[in-house]
Amino acid sequence: MGWRERTHEDTYSDADVEQRLKEELPHWYLENGWIRRKYKTSGWKATLMVVNTVGHLAEAAFHHPDLTVSYAFVIVKLMNHAAKGITDKDFELARKIEEVVMWQPGKEGGALEGTPDDPRFKYIKYD
Hints:
alpha+beta
């Protein structure tokens, strides 16, 4: 069965996880049974903003990642504990985290200009 035919609670093989990450979440990687992403920040305040954002999204989804938090980065690790592997829940939450944390409104051309290109206001180190 290919990854597109699975149910939401089915776990994926490592090969299927790697393929989905390559197609859908290229900055995420598989390591020791978890899908992971390291978000680099410009310092402690920015790190806390990322942690709070991930926390809000995880609680709203009722699917909770493990986090490694340091001065200038946050590592998000997802794995479905109940299923003991990677499921659709992990991919969906990873996509939402990626969408929100890496959002750059200034590139969308709307009224929201985004963070000024000034070191005093930088917080996320965009890929």
